[in-house]
């Protein structure tokens, strides 16, 4: 009887763990700056994401909408000590973008995001908890925010897999993932029950081998030369990856 052929095994990977994300960072771009989220951001952000006109922003979030400012602020206060997720404020670099209630840099918050499902030993991390006000949606600022967070995950923290997940019904989020360079991996059916409703979850990822080409495309798209005098893009981000 012949010897049994060995089972195929994955490539050997070094055992260098990734770094756990810290909220004590400052990621500075041309359009936005990302800092640790704190209760100090609550006052300026609340008007941008509360009220009937903004209720739709919470449709695919695990909580909200929040109609009580003190509860909203208390949530932000709790985020300050969270280790997973680690929450960040997305601040506009435009000095004129500040809310009327709030002062200084904190008043320029236009969105929030987080790193979550953090597994340094396996070097995987997810970007999520994305809550974008109307001031951030569909702007170069939003793209740059995701570029800054991906760059930190791969280049500064040492992750090899970067994940994006969304409700399968959340078409804008699914489109954003593909536009940014994530690869669709499949759908987890009946994954969660959220606010009494079924949630199927789409999974997306990018990995460290892909990051250099994804980064190059993002930087080319974000270059001011890619925008005309009215701020309209000359080439779509997807075209830079072709």
Description of the molecule:
The chain has 242 residues and is an alpha+beta fold. It has an eight-stranded mixed sheet with strand order 1-2-3-4-5-6-8-7, sandwiched between helices. The protein is globular and about 75 Å long. The model has no long low-confidence stretch (mean pLDDT 95).
Task: Describe the secondary-structure layout.
Elements: E1 26-28, E2 32-36, H1 42-49, H2 69-79, E3 86-92, E4 109-119, E5 124-132, H3 140-156, E6 161-167, H4 171-180, E7 183-194, E8 197-207, H5 211-222
Parallel strand pairs: 5-6
Antiparallel strand pairs: 1-2, 2-3, 3-4, 4-5, 6-8, 7-8
Helix pairs in contact: 3-5
Which properties best describe this structure?
242 residues; alpha+beta; eight-stranded mixed beta sheet; 5 helices; 27% strand; globular
Measured by DSSP, the beta-strand proportion falls in 25-35%
C-alpha Rg (nearest Å): 19 Å
Counting DSSP E segments of at least 2 residues, the number of strands comes to 8
Q: What summary fits the major beta sheet?
A: 8 strands, mixed
Q: Give the quaternary arrangement of the chains.
A: single chain
Question: Which runs of at least 5 residues are low in confidence (pLDDT < 50)?
Answer: none
Provide the residue-averaged pLDDT.
Answer: 95
> Helicity range of the residues?
10-25%
The string of secondary-structure elements, in order, is EEHHEEEHEHEEH
Spatial order of the strands in the main sheet? 1-2-3-4-5-6-8-7
Helix/strand-derived category reads alpha+beta
